[in-house]
Every structure is written in C-alpha cells, then in structure tokens.
Amino acid sequence: MTACAAVGTIHDRRWDRQGWWAARMAAVAEGEAGLETDSAACLLLHRHGRACPGHPSSIVAAQVAGARPMGASTARPRNRPGWTWRKLRRLPWPRSATTDVPAYLSAANRLTLPAHAEETAMQNRPHLLLWTDSPGPYVDAIRDAGLAERVDVDTLARSQQPSATQRASTTVLLAAGAPPGLLPTMPNLAWAQSLTAGVEGWLALPDLPPGLTLTCARGTHRESMPENILGALFHIAKPYAAIVEDQKRRLWRQRIATPLNGRTLGILGLGAIGQEVARLATALGMRVIGTKRRPAPLPGLDAVLAPEETGTVLAQSDYVLVLLPATPETENFINAGRLRAMKPTAWLLNFGRGQVIDDADLIAAVSSGTIAGAVLDVFRQEPLPPEHPFWITAGIIVLPHIGGPHPERDRIVARLFVRNLGLFLDGEPLTQVVDRAAGY
User: Fold this and answer.
1) Is residue 353 annotated as a catalytic residue, yes or no?
2) Element holding 303 (H helix, E strand)
3) How far, in Å, CA of 34 to CA of 11, rounded?
4) H helices of 128-193, where?
C-alpha cells in the first residue's frame, strides 16, 4: 500500500477514533474541494505529522491548510485545526530535482484550494455537547485555550435529554454518565469525557460502543479529598466532637488526644489521591504503607506492596484507608476475613467505592469489637436509605459523600478536559483513558 492509499485504512481504523475528526475533514475536502485522492490523503497524513515519502507531488497538500498559493517563500503559513508548523518542519520533505528546496515549494507542485474549502471545514468542526448543570467553567476554559474557533459547543442541563439534532451531530460528550440506549443513537460520537473519576456507571452500560474512547477525571479530587481524609483522621484521634458535647452541658473535662505521629496509615489503592494523602500524613510523622496494582517505590512510603499482600498492610496499620475503584475484583474486598486481619484498635476509612465493603461483615466487625470503628464516605446506594443499619451502629460514622466535591472542582476538571480537547483536535493520544479491562 502506498502512503497515499493509507487514507482508506485510516478511515477504517479511525485512529482509535481519536484522529477520526481529522480523517472526516480530509474526506470532505477530498470530495467537495476537488482535490485528487492522493493529495487529500497526503493532506490528512501531514496534518498529523505523518510523512508521505516518495510522493512529492502531494506533499504540497500539507501546505493548503494555509489556504493560499505556495510560491518560493518559506514564510510561516496560518494555523489551521489539526496542523502545526513545528510538525511540518520535522517532516522528511523530498527535495526538488533542480533546486535544493523542499519539493512542495517547486513550481510543479503548487496547489490552490477552491475558495469554499475553508467554509466546508468550518461547517464540519467537531461538535461538543456539555451535558452538565455547570457548563460555565468548561466554556471559559475552551475559550481561554484558544479552541473556541475550532469547535462548536452545545450545553444541556442534566435534567434534559439530548435532542435528535444533538445526538446526530455530537462528536465529543462531556457528562457524568449516560442512560442505556443513548450512546448508540450518536453515530458521530468519538470521545466521551466522564465528569467523575469512577466510571463503573459507564462501563455497566450494556450498549457502550466498543470503539468509543472514554476518559475519566482521575486525579481531579486531589485538592479536596486528601484534606477531608485528614479531617477524618483528626476526628478519630482528637476529642473535639466530644468536647463540643461537654460544652453543651457546661462540663469541664480534660479529654486526652491521641497523637497521629508515629502511627501507621495503610492505604489500599496508591493512586493520585492515595499518594497525596501519603505525602500529607508523612508530614505529620505517620508511617505510611500501602498497596498498588503495579508496586514500585514511592517517596515517603515505607512499603509499597502488591494487592496480594493486602494482609500485611492490614495487620500493621492503625488506620486503614480504602481508595479502591469498583471493579469485579474489588467487590466485597473488605470482608469478614480481612477485617479480622486488622488490629482490634484500628479504624477503617472508606473514601473509594461502597461496593468494596461487605456491609454486613463491617457492621458485625464493629459491633463485636473486631475493629474499633469505621468512617464511611461512600455507599452501595446513595443517598444511604434511612433504614440502613449504618445509621444506628455505634462506632460507624456516616459521611454524605463529601470527600471529593468542592467549589472549584469544575474548573479543575475543565483544565483536564481542555488539555485532552487540544490533543483530540491534533489527532494525538488522549490522557486519562479508561482501561475497560481493568475497570478504571
């Protein structure tokens, strides 16, 4: 296959759908702007930094992004979506047979776009659907990043459903989730950005398109959740809550605080949040150990172990922090057997996912004194039903899922989204792509 015949392959594979929009725009240019097939293919290849060796006559197609005839000048052309001069300069341009200049500058290789080609590109810009009740930070971030002229943006409240026109035109979807039956009705959807770090809802969809690129908001809780976790540790170790109750009774009672310095914190799930908690806990003088899917030494941690060595972490820890995602492997991971492996004076803190804990086993462990207590911020069903035993079990503290949310979180997610949007428009690999096999 020649390089210029590769356009068919690119359309078939859709570059894992991340370079799909560029492929579509090139096809439109080929069909409506009157370019030869090989020239359109080269335009597609060179817009994304792919060289087209051995075909100098079509290399000029990379320069038509400037929408003007090419002469002997090497002046920098105007920017166009999916194309950068820096990439163009790195290409192995063939040289003219008669002059020592790139072949695309020779007279035989000049090419001019018809006048309506730029208008066609404008009509085929990627269409973004921001399905959120707080679209402002995302619209602002797109504008501030200089991407507003390269995309069309629609906003939609979560209480509303996308219209038929929106479903047909949407290329990129930003949302907390999607109901069954929606995504298959969006034929042009190439990429979905989850507003949350956890994507179990997306992955549970029976009709999640297999070729859809799904990215998550992993790491965007780093500003608030570690502080809230430390707040839970202080609540356990310090007697402030009890002293407030003493004050209501005008009772002067000197309660003794338990120091965190020198205690061991075990973290199950040393991702971005876990590592930040470890950093802060180390600053308090705590010893930190934990588990990671791919164990490797981390700054400030005494030990990073594989999940198979969870028992070692449980046996040594005074506080066990659970930050595991919801996957088939982690369902009921904290069960009666693992709770028995903990110290009777130890506390369990779950800021990961409710499915990770066997509710009945935890209630039994706390009620019997197998462990000292638990602080729970996530649950199998939210809001937690009023009849659930967690509400009335002494030693279990129920938090209404306050670990991650904070006033600036949408702006933080917007920064992540816009970085990926720039990569998407340039046909580059995205970050925070969900591994469907792993579940996160």
Assistant:
1) yes
2) strand 303-305
3) 19
4) 136-144, 164-169
Q: Any idea what DSSP says for residue 78?
A: P
Are 325 and 303 in contact, with CB atoms under 8 Å apart?
A: no
C-alpha span between 223 and 220 (Å, rounded):
7
Catalytic residue among 245, 331, 382, 408: 382
Going by C-alpha positions, the residue among 141, 137, 130, 29 that lies closest to residue 83 is 29
Q: What is the distance between the alpha carbons of residues 112 and 175, in angstroms, rounded to a whole number?
A: 41
3-state DSSP percent of the chain in helix, strand and coil, to 5: 40, 15, 45
Q: How confident is the model at residue 176, as a pLDDT?
A: 97
Is-catalytic flag, 95? no
According to CATH, the superfamily of the domain at 123-220+411-426 is NAD(P)-binding Rossmann-like Domain (3.40.50.720)
pTM assigned to the model: 0.69
Q: Which residues of the chain have a pLDDT value below 50? A: 1-21, 28-121
**Of residues 184, 113, 197, 208, the one with CA closest to residue 401:** 197
160-188 pLDDT per residue, tens: 999 999 999 999 999 999 999 999 999 99
pLDDT of residue 153: 98
Q: Which of 47, 167, 353, 409 is catalytic?
A: 353
Q: Is the dihedral of CA 290, 294, 298, 302 positive or negative?
A: positive
Residue range(s) occupied by CATH 3.40.50.720 in the chain: 123-220+411-426, 223-398
pLDDT single digits (tens) 218-270: 989 888 999 999 999 999 999 999 999 999 999 999 999 999 999 999 999 99
- CATH class for the region spanning 223-398: alpha beta
| H or E segment to which residue 59 belongs | helix 56-59
Q: How far apart are CA 75 and CA 86, in angstroms?
A: 13
Looking at residue 337, its pLDDT comes to 98
The b-or-e profile of 193-223 (16+ CB within 10 A means b, else e) is bbbbbbbeebeebeebbeebbbbbbbbbbbe
Residue among 388, 401, 406, 419 flagged as catalytic = 401
